[in-house]
């Protein structure tokens, strides 16, 4: 794209400039067909709030002397975007935007595509129109005349947030949905449970939130310092909270992926119900970072517990996919357990690690009976992932091999290799950066991710559905810190998932510099490209 091309993020597929401009003023009209009314409602609210104008909604044939934005679902898609399908259909998210003296027209095969066209329209407008109320008086707004043909490379474009290590309020989740959808990301993965906390209400097991949602203290400083803060921490989302989150996300064409990690990362659950453990020991919710050796036992009652929990989770979350973790599960307790060894004998297993495969198959059957599909981290491949399982490839050196293995076995894959996608890593090794688990993933490094493994072949490439960034929150305690760690790296990941394979870092860096004004208008506590601001920095420096 040329230097004069509007600084859009992510980069559109094709953009052609036209002479002139579209002009809008008080009394402008959003004219939508039946398939676009929900998108029209949202856009009218956004533009009305930002301008202070009366923004009228009308049918597809409406005219206006104050400018018209026309929204239309037209054309054909190979499938529905969102809905009950396991992945959004990229073809359904395509759109065409034309701005000229007649106004703006956005057409797409589905409402999702129309929605993404409106996100581009908002970027074509002045950045201050991203605010929630007018910051200045405007008599009119001009949008340069352009024709854009655009659509995503991948159907899965995700952000992950760990709310188990540190709890984040519902309002932040809603803001994150806004920010994800503005960048054309369409999956928000919520890591709801871990050793350090349980964050989802389960009616049949009230102690999961009465006990498991709270821990006595947390590590202070880096975990290697072995210090504690002596401060209780916790919180959880009620079912009503989560229903609100899901409904808000659906309006923004974001799929919420819930994760209930099992059979490891379960100390908070075992602290709530000791009978779920292997030793009978009364535990507390884990107050260290890292991996607890305390994992679920494999008794029928425990498998039933997991099924009961997943039943309630699937009642809350409407999406087809449910993440059950499956990562980093120690086998020490199973190896020492006579009951686990007896189960191994009955199943004809030679290693305790194989018990995890058996367990995963049980929970997969529960999900299948509810019309849902299991997602697991790439460790689920080690003992045989159930048919139809979606694999998230994350381990730095193993992710690419795991992706290939999964694809060869017929599993769909989401790429989240930690050295590109784990945004709990710092941006750099500069001592000004906030405390983080590891250095370093720069914006340029995140932008360099190529989700498609090399030499996979066209026959298997269809199994690579996209990419996702993760924010683990051992060292992220506030919403402003979370925004700093996400942005602008999430902008880079958004372009990786949406735009073509060809990359131009200098061009992206230039567009990103302009895009910062949009992030500022949206109220994002982003990290400047030059480094942390004084209030974001861990140490005082004249560089700040």
Give structural notes.
This protein is of the alpha/beta class. The chain folds into two domains: 14-150, Chitobiase/beta-hexosaminidase domain 2-like (Chitobiase, domain 2); 156-511, TIM Barrel (Alpha-Beta Barrel), CATH 3.20.20.80. The chain contains 17 helices and 21 strands. It has helices at residues 37-51, 111-124, 170-182, 207-210, 239-251, 267-272, 300-316, 332-336, 338-347, 354-369, 399-408, 418-421, 443-447, 458-461, 479-486, 489-498, 505-521; strands spanning 14-25, 29-32, 56-58, 68-73, 95-100, 103-108, 140-150, 156-162, 187-191, 193-194, 197-198, 214-215, 219-220, 227-228, 233-234, 255-259, 321-323, 373-377, 390-393, 413-415, 464-471. It has an eight-stranded parallel beta sheet with strand order 16-9-8-21-20-19-18-17. The chain has a seven-stranded mixed beta sheet with strand order 1-7-5-6-4-2-3, with helices on one face. It has a two-stranded antiparallel sheet with strand order 10-11. α3 (170-182) links the parallel β8 and β9 (187-191). The longest helix has 17 residues, at 300-316. It is globular. It starts with 13 loop residues before the first strand and ends in a 23-residue tail after the last helix.
Please describe the structure with a list of short key phrases separated by commas or semicolons.
544 residues; alpha/beta; Chitobiase, domain 2; TIM Barrel; 2 domains; eight-stranded parallel β-sheet; seven-stranded mixed β-sheet; 31% helix
